[in-house]
Design brief:
Rossmann fold; six-stranded mixed sheet; four-stranded antiparallel sheet; binds adenosine-5'-diphosphate; binds magnesium ion
Amino acid sequence: MDATPVAVAGAPPAQPNAAVIEVVDLVKDYRVGQVPVHVLQGITFQIRRGDFVSIMGPSGSGKSTLMNILGCLDKPTSGSYKLDGIDVGGLDRDRLAEIRNRKIGFVFQQFNLLARTSATENVELPLMYTDLPAAERRERAMKSLEAVGLSGREEHQPSQLSGGQQQRVAIARSLVNKPKIILADEPTGALDSRTSIEIMAIFQRLNREEGMTMIVVTHDADVANYSRRVLHFKDGRLERDEAIPQPRDAKKDLEALPALVPEKTVAV
Ligand SMILES: Nc1ncnc2c1ncn2[C@@H]1O[C@H](COP(=O)(O)OP(=O)(O)O)[C@@H](O)[C@H]1O
Ligand SMILES: [Mg+2]
């Protein structure tokens, strides 16, 4: 018999599993007065390109501190961090900002949108540091809003949108630079459970269809169950690295929910 292996149709491209995030023995200390606070106490893990990872742990366990380091907003006290193969430890502030803008999109619990500013202008903000012409910035912002289901809401200001819609504007803003990685720190923390599943459905689609690497901090096990892996933190340490062999499908969960009153939007 001829046992020559045959290329499988639709096989993933080469190196789909390369580490996009690689931290080794990451330590972060803060000094409050004379007292050092050991917030991260030697964290080591890798995240592969295209993975969908949750980070869980009690309040104060160092999750946001870790996210700030992964997002190049803060530097570790010691240890190494490679982002997409680049050792970011040795980079100056300008290079760090450049890498951050190019590779990472951020989503926060409190949306962090500018008040009295339209959805489109909020989404365009990260492009202000690029030399894209205004028309192209606008075009990209409109496409990002479309990708999160907010076409028709372009001129709405945050106060004219529901919480879930505001978070979708924030996700559109995180997408506008076409990042490889989305870092979301408690993105559903201010939302009800149905809206939370809607947000997770958007993240799952971006992960599956665009291959974006998703990293989501949550205290909610229901939310974590939409990811494929959970990193459990406790007291600044990685306590457990849990695989979720069969993540829940947010789109299916939404379809199974009883029909709902449409999300409340402040009339304009
Ligand atoms: N800038 C800072 N200065 C001093 N201590 C800080 C600072 N930022 C965070 N911490 C402390 O670090 C610990 C972890 O905080 P954080 O990363 O925000 O935890 P989590 O996001 O898991 O709730 C907390 O004890 C917090 O008080
Ligand atoms: Mg936090």
